[in-house]
């Protein structure tokens, strides 16, 4: 039987070669589907890895407190609106409470505002303002290119600015000492960040596109309201952190009169972003799957044509001793070969596409063995799934009827 | 010989219908037939009397609408598709009236095709095919495509394909229909040789001369067997017919004249080699039957 398998492969090869153009086009359909799936998987994998790398970089001693409360049900139903809190349950007073919970804690609140920034030359751009504390420098891994991070005691309103935003506003990388205004407040650029190229991180902030200001200044811009997206806490060690988190939790519950917040630490810190991305990835994979189905229909179509064209051949093969099962296998192998060739091409195309897109999007795609297996596995699944019906039709053919057919 | 008593083929009131309603008609109308191992049967009859239909039935390609068909004592109606395919592959060789070669495969690949379903590897398959083609003087045409051959050559390829799996039952539908009388007799000699080795042959022919090779002649008419005669073939009568033929003037050219002697010696050597196989083959189905 194994020898027969080899014969089927040979027969399929000959048949596919005889109809080169047809084979190429059908294969292309599958290749595009597989390429989209693998590209998406590789980019998603790249994103996930970069988030967990950031968490690792800060160490196992990071915890994040996020609001979670009465309003949480509605919010969780739509993970895309993670940052748009109607009213955050976290309060400004919580910061002091947390700082006092243990020695050596670094606490960075994160409050984001989307606003228009304008320069003196009337250049303006929409950007994200992050109000935080000086501790953010330590809790998030954001090295400075020039200048300094915001300081609490400063005669001016300081701002540290991301690379891309700097280029947008001033057309230069190092606009230190230059000013911009948001509504009535004028800010002075005191420092710039290195380009990070990591729009995805556990803070949910693309630092390249962001201005970092003091929380008090952000509060002023927001009409005296503090809206905390999250509070980052970093301890000296993970033991210290765990000890501190216990105290923090009890005190916060007491202060808030209930649990309207969530404390996450360790690996889970990366989770909200991965959750968001898992969802996005799933949506995109669903779209890619549609193209794969279209490719599969292409295979089915071509195999049906092939079976019809070769009706006589099927009759002859049966009359010299091929069983229906053998015929089924023969045609199934032919469609599997079509889809596998498509799968391999699709993988190669996917690698090219992922790296191409990666260079534009600043992610580095990651190809794991699992992605390769998933790509080829999908191809096999499509080949077998869509090849089954034509193969069954071929197998069902009556030998005498088939022999009577002239071409 | 064990099982010599059992008929290879036994048909009881076999009916094959075509068409529906008023157009319905019986291509086979209650055919009863018993064929013993080692018979060489010539089937004759006017066009459309059901000869091809009968062979298709015997070759397990078609199913009867009514009646019973016992092959080697086993009712074929009960056999699974795989089992029928296995019997076709191991036991039966069919030469079709319209040859039925695969157009896009070369001559040698066509001939080797039945061996594929024995699970034989490609090299061995092609060797065996080449050997059989040699006995039909087609070695030079091995890598031709069927459409590049003459009608007679195609016919010989079709016969070679039917014989390549060394079947014990050979069903030949006008195997000499397209051949001149000398080529016909080469084919008939080959069939006669297979017959001498104990194979069962059922051959449809329109040529009364060729019935001299047969041990039994069946005449069909309107889907029924009209007459059924056993012929005693003696070595003497056979040599007589052969001599008769050689004396007969042929229309073919001089270059061909030397061929027969050479051909027959070449054939001898190949047939000798294959001689042992049919006996083993005949035992094999019985064993396979026991397995099933
Ligand atoms: N598929 C079919 N549909 C309808 N009628 C059929 C079909 N196949 C055969 N027949 C009829 O069955 C009868 C017997 O056909 P068959 O092919 O067996 O004749 P035959 O004896 O082989 O003739 P010939 O000597 O011309 O080959 C014919 O009358 C034919 O019309
Ligand atoms: Mg006929």
Question: What's the topology here?
Answer:
The complex is a heterodimer of chains A (407) and B (292).
Chain A lengths: L1 H17 L1 H39 L3 E6 L4 H6 L14 H10 L4 E14 L4 E9 L3 H4 L4 E4 L10 E4 L1 H8 L8 E4 L2 E9 L16 E5 H7 L8 E5 L3 H19 L4 E5 L5 H39 L1 H9 L4 H38 L7 H28 L2 H6 L3
Parallel strand pairs in A: 3-8, 5-7
Antiparallel strand pairs in A: 1-9, 1-10, 2-3, 2-6, 2-9, 4-7, 5-8, 6-7
Helix pairs in contact in A: 1-11, 2-9, 2-11, 2-12, 4-8, 9-11, 9-12, 11-12
Chain B lengths: L6 E12 L6 E12 L3 E5 L6 H8 L7 E6 L2 E2 L5 H10 L1 E4 L11 H10 L5 H14 L15 H13 L5 E5 L7 H16 L3 E5 L11 E6 L2 E7 L4 H13 L11 H16 L1 H16 L1
Parallel strand pairs in B: 3-8, 3-9, 6-7, 7-8
Antiparallel strand pairs in B: 1-2, 1-4, 4-5, 9-10
Helix pairs in contact in B: 3-4, 3-5, 4-8
The complex binds adenosine-5'-triphosphate and magnesium ion.
The site of magnesium ion has 4 residues of chain B, from helix 1.
Characterization of this structure:
Chain A is α+β, with helices and mostly antiparallel strands and 407 residues long. Chain A contains 13 helices and ten strands. Chain A has two domains: 182 residues, no CATH class; 191 residues, no CATH class. In chain A, strands 2-3-8-5-7-6 form a six-stranded mixed β-barrel. The longest helix of chain A has 39 residues. The radius of gyration of chain A is 30 Å and the shape is elongated. In chain B, helix 3 packs across helix 4, helix 3 packs parallel to helix 5 and helix 4 crosses helix 8. In chain B, a hairpin with a 2-residue loop joins strand 4 and strand 5. Chain B has a six-stranded mixed beta sheet, sandwiched between helices. In chain B, strands 2-1-4-5 form a four-stranded antiparallel beta sheet, with helices on one face. Chain B is of the alpha/beta class and 292 residues long. Chains A and B meet through helix 1, helix 10, helix 11 and helix 13 of A and helix 2 and helix 3 of B. The complex binds adenosine-5'-triphosphate and magnesium ion. Magnesium ion binds next to helix 1 of chain B.
């Amino acid at each position: 039987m194994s020898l027969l398998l080899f014969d089927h492969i040979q027969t399929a090869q000959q048949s596919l070669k005889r109809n080169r153009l047809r084979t190429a086009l059908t294969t292309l359909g599958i290749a595009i589907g597989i390429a989209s799936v693998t590209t998406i998987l590789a980019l998603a994998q790249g994103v996930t890895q970069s988030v967990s790398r950031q968490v690792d970089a800060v160490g196992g001693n990071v915890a994040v407190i996020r609001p979670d409360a009465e309003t949480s049900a509605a919010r969780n139903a739509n993970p895309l609106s993670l940052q748009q809190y109607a009213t955050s349950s976290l309060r400004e007073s919580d910061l002091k409470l947390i700082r006092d919970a243990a020695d050596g804690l670094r606490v960075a609140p994160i409050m984001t505002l989307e606003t228009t920034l304008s320069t003196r030359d009337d250049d303006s751009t929409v950007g994200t303002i992050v109000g935080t504390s000086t501790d953010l420098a330590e809790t998030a891994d954001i090295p400075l290119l020039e200048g300094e991070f915001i300081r609490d005691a400063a005669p001016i309103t300081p701002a540290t600015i991301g690379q891309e935003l700097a280029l947008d506003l001033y057309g230069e990388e190092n606009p230190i000492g230059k000013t911009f205004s948001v509504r009535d407040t004028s800010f002075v650029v005191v420092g710039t960040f290195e380009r990070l190229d990591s729009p995805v991180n556990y803070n949910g902030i693309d630092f390249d596109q962001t201005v970092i200001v003091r929380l008090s200044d952000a509060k002023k811009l927001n009409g005296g309201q503090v809206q905390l997206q999250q509070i980052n806490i970093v301890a000296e060690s993970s033991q210290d952190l765990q000890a501190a988190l216990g105290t923090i939790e009890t005190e916060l519950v007491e202060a808030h009169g209930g649990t309207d917040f969530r404390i996450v630490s360790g690996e889970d810190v990366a989770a909200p972003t991965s959750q968001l991305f898992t969802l996005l990835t799933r949506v995109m994979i669903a779209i890619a799957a549609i193209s794969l189905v279209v490719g599969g229909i292409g295979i089915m179509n071509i195999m049906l044509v092939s079976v019809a064209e070769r009706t006589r051949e099927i009759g002859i093969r049966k009359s010299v001793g091929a069983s229906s099962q053998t015929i089924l296998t023969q045609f199934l192998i032919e469609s599997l070969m079509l889809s596998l060739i498509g799968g391999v091409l699709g993988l190669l195309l996917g690698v090219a596409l992922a790296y191409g897109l990666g260079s534009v999007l600043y992610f580095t795609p990651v190809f794991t063995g699992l992605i390769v297996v998933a790509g080829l596995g999908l191809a096999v699944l499509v080949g077998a799934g869509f090849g089954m019906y034509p193969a069954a039709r071929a197998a069902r053919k009556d030998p005498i009827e088939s022999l009577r057919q002239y071409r | 010989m064990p099982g010599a008593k059992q008929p290879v083929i036994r048909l009881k009131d076999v009916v094959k219908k075509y068409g529906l309603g008023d157009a319905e008609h019986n291509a086979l109308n209650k055919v009863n037939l018993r064929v013993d191992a080692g018979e060489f049967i010539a089937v004759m009859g006017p066009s459309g009397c059901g000869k091809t239909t009968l062979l298709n039935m015997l070759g397990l390609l078609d199913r009867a609408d009514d009646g019973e068909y016992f092959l080697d004592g086993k009712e074929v109606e009960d056999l699974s598709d795989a089992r029928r395919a296995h019997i076709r592959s191991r036991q039966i060789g069919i030469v079709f009236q319209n040859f039925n070669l695969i157009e896009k495969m070369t001559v040698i690949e066509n001939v080797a095709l039945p061996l594929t379903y024995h699970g034989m590897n490609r090299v061995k398959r092609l060797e065996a095919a080449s050997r059989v083609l040699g006995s039909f003087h087609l070695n030079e045409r091995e890598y031709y495509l069927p459409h590049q051959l003459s009608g007679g050559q195609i016919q010989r390829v079709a016969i070679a394909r039917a014989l390549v799996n060394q079947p014990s039952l050979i069903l030949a539908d006008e195997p000499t229909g397209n051949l001149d009388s000398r080529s016909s007799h080469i084919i008939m000699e080959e069939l006669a040789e297979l017959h001498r080795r104990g194979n069962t042959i059922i051959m449809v022919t329109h040529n009364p001369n060729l019935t001299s090779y047969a041990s039994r002649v069946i005449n069909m008419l309107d889907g029924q067997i009209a007459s059924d005669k056993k012929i005693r073939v003696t070595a003497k009568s056979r040599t007589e017919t052969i001599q008769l033929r050689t004396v007969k003037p042929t229309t073919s050219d001089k270059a061909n004249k030397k061929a027969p002697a050479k051909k027959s010696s070449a054939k001898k050597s190949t047939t000798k080699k294959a001689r042992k196989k049919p006996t083993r083959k005949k035992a094999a189905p019985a064993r396979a039957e026991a397995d099933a």
